[in-house]
């Protein structure tokens, strides 16, 4: 017997409220697949979320700027591909997913993105000058190669090991000898020992040798 009729219902209500609180504040999560310490410009990355409202929408932002709405499944999960771009240098960006119907459900993930490229200096000088070589973003391998292609010859020069999360490199070396053949030399930088002109991740320079350059 419950002499006070409201005693049991009140106790039940308090218990239900206590159980419901963690559900309303359930921690949402956001991650990237594949998970990498650094992504090169042009890569497509899957943003994977969980813990959001079922059959809802998660709004994805980048450093506070709206990117795209993403529908969630009945499980409260989602997976959406996004192509990352970076024109120069590298940058750490914060991607955040927030449930459109319950803004309490939000999660963020930091993403480091780097441009892909090689810089050569000096631009002018003798054909056999030593170049200051700086490279970044070659995440397709651990070693940078220079493939020097001429209509009558082909050379493969190992530049050096790529270091750090974004696979950077600094080196100083000659790319052409003093007696380099006259004509156009195509220099392709990539991370493969064997040369293929259609490598998807590469940087290409052209050096034209004329009489008087030697």
Describe the structure in brief:
The chain is mainly beta. The protein has one helix at 7-24; strands at 29-33, 39-40, 44-50, 57-62, 65-71, 78-83, 90-99, 106-114, 117-121, 130-136, 143-150, 153-161, 169-174, 183-190, 203-209.
How does the overall form come out from the CA principal axes?
Answer: elongated
User: How large a portion of the residues is in β-strands, by DSSP E?
Assistant: over 45%
How many domains make up the coordinates? 2
**What is the top-level CATH class of the largest domain?**
Mainly Beta
Here the CATH topology of the largest domain equals: Immunoglobulin-like
C-alpha end-to-end distance: 107 Å
Counting copies of identical and different chains, the oligomeric state is: single chain
CATH architecture annotation of the largest domain:
Sandwich
Helix fraction bin: under 10%
Note poorly predicted spans: 1-25
Helix-strand makeup class: mainly beta
In N-to-C order, the SSE pattern is HEEEEEEEEEEEEEEE
Number of β-strand runs: 15
The profile of the biggest β sheet is: 5 strands, mixed
Rg from Cα: 28 Å
Key features of this structure:
214 residues; Immunoglobulin-like; 4-stranded antiparallel β-sheet; 5-stranded mixed β-sheet
Description of the molecule:
The protein has 214 residues and is mainly β. The protein has two domains: 27-114, Macroglobulin (MG2) domain (Immunoglobulin-like), CATH 2.60.40.1930; 117-209, Immunoglobulin-like, CATH 2.60.40. It has one helix spanning 7-24, and strands at residues 29-33, 39-40, 44-50, 57-62, 65-71, 78-83, 90-99, 106-114, 117-121, 130-136, 143-150, 153-161, 169-174, 183-190, 203-209. The protein has a five-stranded mixed beta sheet with strand order 2-8-7-4-5, with no helix packed on it. The protein has a four-stranded antiparallel beta sheet with strand order 12-11-14-15, with no helix packed on it. A hairpin with a 2-residue loop joins strand 4 (57-62) and strand 5 (65-71). The radius of gyration is 28 Å and the shape is elongated. Residues 1-25 have low confidence and may be disordered.
């Amino acid at each position: 017997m419950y002499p006070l009729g409201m005693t049991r219902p009140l106790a039940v209500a308090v218990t239900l409220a206590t159980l419901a609180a963690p559900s309303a504040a359930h921690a949402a999560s956001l991650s990237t697949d594949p998970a990498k310490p650094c992504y090169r410009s042009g890569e497509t990355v899957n943003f994977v979320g969980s813990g959001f409202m079922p059959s809802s929408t998660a709004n994805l932002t980048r450093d506070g700027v709206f990117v795209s709405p993403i529908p969630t499944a009945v499980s409260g999960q989602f997976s959406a591909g996004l192509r990352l771009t970076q024109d120069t240098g590298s940058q750490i960006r914060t991607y955040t997913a927030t449930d459109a119907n319950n803004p309490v459900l939000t999660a963020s993930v930091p993403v480091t993105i780097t441009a892909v490229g090689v810089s050569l200096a000096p631009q002018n000088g003798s054909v056999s000058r030593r170049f200051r070589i700086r490279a970044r973003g070659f995440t397709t391998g651990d070693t940078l190669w220079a493939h020097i292609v001429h209509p009558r010859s082909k050379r493969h020069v190992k530049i050096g090991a790529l270091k750090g999360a974004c696979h950077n490199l600094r080196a100083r070396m000659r790319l052409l000898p003093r007696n380099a053949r006259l004509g156009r030399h195509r220099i392709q930088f990539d991370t493969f020992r064997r040369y293929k002109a259609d490598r998807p991740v590469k940087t290409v320079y052209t050096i034209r040798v004329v009489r008087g350059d030697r």
